[in-house]
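> tool_call: predict_assembly(chains=two)
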Amino acid sequence: MAAANNRDYKTITEIRELREETLKKIGARLGRDNYDGAEIHLMVCGSTGCTSSGSGKLLEKLDELMERDGLSEKVAIVKTGCFGLCAEGPIIMVQPGNYMYTQVTPEDLDEIWECHIKGGSPVETLISQNESEFFSKQKRVALRNCGRINPECIDEYIAFDGYEALSMVLTEMEPEDVIDTIKKSGLRGRGGGGFPAGTKWEAAAKQECREKYICCNADEGDPGAFMDRSILEGDPHSVIEAMAIAGYAVGAHKGFIYIRAEYPIAVERLRTAIGQAREYGLLGKNILGRGFEFDIEIRLGAGAFVCGEGSALMISIEGNRGEPRPKPPRATEKGLFGKPTVLNNVETFANVPQIIVKGLDWYNSIGTEKSKGTKVFAVSGKINNTGLVEIPMGTTLREIIYDIGGGIPDGKKFKAAQTGGPSGGCIPAELIDTPIDYDSLTSLGSMMGSGGLIVMDESTCMVDIAKFFLEFTVDESCGKCPPCRIGTKRMLEIITRITEGKGTMEDLDELEELSEVIKRGALCGLGQSAPNPVLSTMKYFKDEYIAHVRDKKCPAGVCISMLRYIIEKESCKRCGICAKNCPVGAITGSKEEPYVIDQDKCIKCGVCMSKCPFKSIMKNA
Amino acid sequence: MGKVHVTIDGIQVYVPDDYTILEAAKEINIHIPTLCFLKDVSEIGCCRMCLVQIKGKKGLEAACVHPVYDGMEVRTHSPEIIKVRKKNMELILSNHPAICQSCTRSDSHCELQALANMLDVHFSNYKKYQETVNQNAAVDMDDGISIQRDPNRCVLCRRCISICNNIQTVGAISAINRGFNTIIGTAGNRGLDDTVCVSCGQCINVCPTGALQEHRDIDSVWDALYDEDKYVVVQTAPAVRAALGEEFGNPIGTDVTGKMVTALRMLGFDKVFDTNTGADLTIMEEGTELIDRIRGGGVLPLITSCSPGWVKFCEHNFPEMIPNLSTCKSPHEMLGAIIKSYYAEKNGIDPDKIVVVSVMPCTAKKFESQRPELAVDGRADVDFVVTTRELARMIKSIGIDFNAIADGKFDDPLGQSTGAGLIFGTTGGVMEAALRTVADIINGVSSDSIDYMEVRGLEDGIKVAEVKIADLNIRAAVAHGLGNARKLMERVKAGEHFDFIEIMACPGGCINGGGQPLQVSDVRNWVDFKEKRAKALYKGDREKFIRKSHNNPAIKKLYKEYLGMAGGMKAHKLLHTHYVNRKDD
């Protein structure tokens, strides 16, 4: 619908009418009896995860089937954002009825098409068994539209209360009211630090400066984390709307979204969404005809982890090498281009419109006393339901791992979970009933972080995990301050030595001392938190470190240098299969001589053990 | 600006509210250690040496950048602070090659060494890391015509980046790579000679370690001195005598002309001449050029070309201003050309056997002396350029007790000079010297008011003066530091009228050249060393009997016997040059 009467914006009334029209069009999707559009909606996940597992092919095939059978009136195909159960992609959900098909192959699709779409009877054998357990304990606020709407269609966003918050803010609220609402909501930054968003907005609003900026941090860089990507891919308008609201609240007219270039789908959808929002006058000079001006620019990051740090991010937007600078001044005083700036993360923004529309009472009812609302986690590692989950604050780790995550594969024992990525720490199995919120995680020596959650089972070596995160930090250190630049490198050298069985007890003291100096001395938050993975694994799994150092053993059997394959003389039948299969000729023996492995030559590939018909080869950790 | 009460280590201090903790502590004589900090140049808080504890704050804060506020309580030392500083220093040292015994900085100018001493760091605490130094940090040395960079010795304080990018606006270097592999490098990691670097050497002056120094020419000079077949002539720039004494423990601003001359003789130079004489010659040529351009409708403003750093900067950044550059060679090049022609002829010496060595406060002069367009008949005017620092090293290396030797005098005739030539060494000096001569030429009488105070001083980066000489109103400007030069050029391009502009590449002029004795940050932060050196030159000028270049008898004789007219054919061949557009380099 084009704007009428030479206006380049839609009025609030027009937006509300559009909402009703669209809701009617997609009524079938919502299980309504009264609808105009298609009667069946095939929701196909178009996020990065499912795209890489083949949802693009399914979409192509669906187009062919639609054309072949001429069902375009009856069936709507909707490319959506992430459903969350990424381990089982590609995912198709058929509406009405919430029928979720997972790991759909083109052949499965034929069957679904024939039986379910055309025939009306769901294919029970293909329907996901995990769907209800996966979703039942979740509460989707930031992810509310992911999997529910077509993110490339602004009308569908509008249908689900989209831009209603902005309408309310511009008509019914003064900027102070908005700030007051966000403050009272208790919304805390979802990017890592957990700083109260309302307080940040207030600080920027107080600055007397005509030029201010709203920045969105979409430089998600923790290994394995994809919360922000999924929100931007599945519901870009929620962030755009929130940034405009923030602009109104603090007196800014310009926003920047800093997003990594490795997120092409998210970037594309953001571009589309910004274009559509401008077309409707939801961004621009006279938003909703209320005289408020706000627009957004996208800036692509080159993928440096440090550019997720606030000051580095802004310096990068300014066109310089992304490196943190000391505070004060805070960004709310002197941020981007030296002007007062509010920087929030994607997920923080995604919560804002809902808080305005649904009200404080609703939001305050979710979560714990000091951590309100929900948190999105990207759950990965040794867990059955790898994927994206959103839980109310206060949910326990046990609920996430066993109820939502479907437990640990192969019946193995849960050992620990890492939260907060390379800046966080691990939570050991004995603390699995800890309710997850900002303060409890910090008190355990970990942190909320942006939401990466890596599950580890008994086959994980905690020293090796600490080394993994340290390698990451060493790689991603910007190099500006010596404690991080040289300190983390020295820590990595020590921990590498330990995993190679060359560590000493003094090394453990040195690790602790270096950690302390880096924590206290590094310039930015990322540097200061870099030793956390080492400190927390040393806190909860000191015995593993000691086993590596004193006994030269890796209890989990992960650290290869300490691993030994040994042939058990008693059960060995001297068949010689192991020697034939050894790729480096490390095994010698004959009918007469017992077979032995030359430990100096052995590369610990484990082929001998897998080939031995008599199970005579043992792995000795 | 208000003032605030701050308590530091229990001592109350009342300071302006725009002070940093570091400055406030300085007021009560507490010296907080710094490494990356250089006042007004580099204030980025990256080295983490100056960490202090502010009451009520969780972390430690960098005193060099943290502003004070009323009621602030600061602790500058505690077991934790000491531990963090010390360990931090040990980490830096763990990645620094222990080659101090052969490093030019270790002679009391290595700030890293001084700081390690101050923090009482022990080798035993970091020696366990030493084995990884070479394999991790072995990065190629870049030894260019003027400047030598050794990334292995660099501690990444980034002062060089700040001065190159923010003060000089040259932008030749920046941090490249990340984390432990970070080095200070150039675009595409090319050698400095292949970049927009103008060889001003300001990076060397601010470096706390031996990572940056001049390209070494001492050995070539020794070779020439010990070669029986060579006639080795040395000349010294005006600014050298105002700073050389610092290398031998004299206070900043001590004029050591006499001892310098004696020391040069003791080194074995056959003749010791004065670049000031070359400066007087430059004034004759440049003054004439100015009058010709003004009277003859030539390209204005005329811009001085004595500073080779500025000339290269102009060629890279403002090639459209090349026609404005004076075609005059710089003073030591002029003198070199005269030594190898006039002086050689007069004394019957084969010019090919003459080796001209220039002692300069400048690193860019090394580059300049190798510019092919400066050669006369394929023969370079100057063979080797050594810096003030290199001269000091040569003097020390043969055991001369510099402060005890008697004063000597420059050799005739090219050692006779004027006060005008002497003040060439500081900002505004070339302008003032030129105005003294131009005024007399135009007026036709000798003027007594010869102190042009409006073009003196270090306070302003750009100084503008309107000078009325007879019927002429000369609008003159002086800029020092290339950042200021850039601003001034933008003004010229925007249409502002000037007749004559003096530019020196280094902040303060040659007295703060890239080849001058080093002053550590502790001095640079709190003492105006440039002012003190400049004062020595102005004092010398006042005490000179002759203070105008055109009154120099040696210069008069030179024109009469050899050159003919200023700006004439012979002068042009020997004393003038042309420039290269380096826009696309």
